[in-house]
Write a structure and sequence with these properties.
The chain has about 425 residues and is of the alpha+beta class. The chain contains 11 helices and 26 strands. Strand 24 and strand 25 form a beta hairpin. It binds zinc ion (ZN) (2 copies).
């Protein structure tokens, strides 16, 4: 089990006096209080680095905090350890003879799941185990854009190091938007997009199912519900896909381009499709270097050339009526986004230019990007245009938000999810 210190709970008898110390004398910031009515407690969280102090104030005489203070005086009440799977943690502790207050986890604040360990087993300290809320969206979502139908599908989730995902942005800033697990990884979706017009196009295809157990553990791959399931739910059979378009050839985008047949041989996963790849990206993927090698797995794309279904494009151009590609560079030299236009409306499949809605600020750029200053320029232009044209932006990796509009008001940028 891996556990990180989430917070330390301190029972307080005299809140103004406690604030005079923690807020005024120590100079810490105290968050607005949270009422936990069921416990007759008001909690005041005080961020300290990657964890927090929780000043606990009783709101009724029957509160456990009131009883605690009466018996022992104010002081350390509990510590809270955040775990990835609270049920597994409880099972492991019980197997080792620990005494639990909660044999079964129960709902805690902010949608979390918690269980208390008895102080008798924790050397006199009340220990709370907590599994943070994991809100995820793997729904099939349909949008109409002029004459085109856009269907967002999902190939499941994976996990990447949070620091790498936000580059130079400190964890204290990104963590509230993208909570990290005990291995410091954040949850990312893989959300390809179907465009149905005169032809049917699939943009990117997720990770696919060729990777082995070690890979899936490192990247925390969760594909119990995957592209096969969501395509079926969308009513699109693999042989109905005419064109597969690659934003770039990293494994989380191109893994689903190929599959292993019953004979063990690799072949294109969409039997009737032409696969459209930018020539520069193809060159880079087939000639990787030490800095990008881990992202390019040749089984995902070499079989396309062997099968004669690969179509390399050199410039920004229309791939099918209503869909054109635009090179952004930055993430990789030839990374491209898909610009979709119909009936005077615009949508953009942003791929790794803006992988999640949390990457909205200009400087929130992935550490993975090979040319981050190019990403910055491409992003500034992209946001300016998206705001002006009320573009529907698809976030391929956001665990919750499928698509949204970018709004800028009084110099402040925000997103408005599309329904
Ligand atoms: Zn990428
Ligand atoms: Zn990616």
């Amino acid at each position: 089990m891996r556990a990180v210190l989430d917070h330390i709970g301190i029972a307080v008898a005299d809140l103004p006096a406690a604030l005079a110390f923690y807020r005024d004398a120590l100079g810490l910031e105290v968050e607005p209080p949270e009422e936990v009515a069921s416990q007759n407690v008001r909690a005041h969280f005080v961020p300290v680095g990657a964890s927090r102090l929780e000043l606990l104030e009783a709101t009724a005489p029957e509160s456990a905090i009131a009883k605690y203070v009466e018996k022992r005086g104010p002081g350390l009440h509990h510590i809270t350890l955040r775990v990835d799977d609270v049920r597994a943690a409880v099972a492991q502790l019980r197997a080792r003879g620990a005494r639990m207050i909660d044999e079964e986890p129960r709902p805690g604040a902010e949608g979390s799941l918690i269980a208390f360990v008895h102080p008798a087993s924790a050397h006199g300290v009340l220990v709370e185990l907590k599994q943070a809320r994991q809100e995820r969206n793997d729904r099939v979502t349909r949008y109409t854009l002029g004459d085109l139908e856009l269907i967002s599908v999902c190939d499941g989730f994976f996990h990447l190091d949070g620091g790498s995902m936000f580059g130079v942005v400190p964890k204290t800033l990104w963590e509230p938007k993208a909570p990290a697990d005990s291995r410091n990884r954040i949850t990312l979706a893989m959300r390809p997009l179907i465009v149905r017009g005169v032809r049917t196009m699939l943009i990117d295809a997720g990770l696919g199912d060729k990777e082995h157990a070690t890979f899936c553990d490192i990247y925390g791959v969760e594909r119990a519900r995957n592209l096969d399931d969501t395509l079926a739910e969308a009513g699109v059979a693999p042989d109905q896909i005419d064109i597969v378009l690659a934003s770039h050839l990293h494994f989380d985008h191109a893994g689903g381009f190929t599959m292993r047949g019953a004979d063990g041989r690799l072949r294109p996963r969409f039997p009737r499709a032409q696969y459209v790849v930018r020539r520069g990206e193809w060159e880079d993927a087939t000639h990787p270097h030490a800095r990008n090698r881990a992202s390019y797995l040749s089984d995902n794309y070499l079989p396309l050339a062997a099968a004669g279904v690969l179509q390399l494009v050199d410039d920004d151009q229309t791939i099918m009526p209503g869909v054109k590609v635009r090179r952004t560079g930055g993430h990789t030299m030839h990374h491209q986004v898909a610009v979709i236009e119909s009936g005077g409306k615009t949508a953009i499949f942003a791929a790794d230019l803006m992988p999640t809605a949390a990457h909205l600020p200009d400087a929130w750029i992935m550490g993975f990007d090979l040319y981050p200053v190019d990403t910055l320029a491409a992003k500034q232009r992209f946001v300016e245009e998206a705001v002006a044209a009320k573009t529907l932006v698809f976030f391929e990796h956001d665990p919750r938000v499928t698509a949204a509009y970018i709004i800028e008001q009084d110099g402040k940028r925000s997103i408005q999810p599309a329904s």
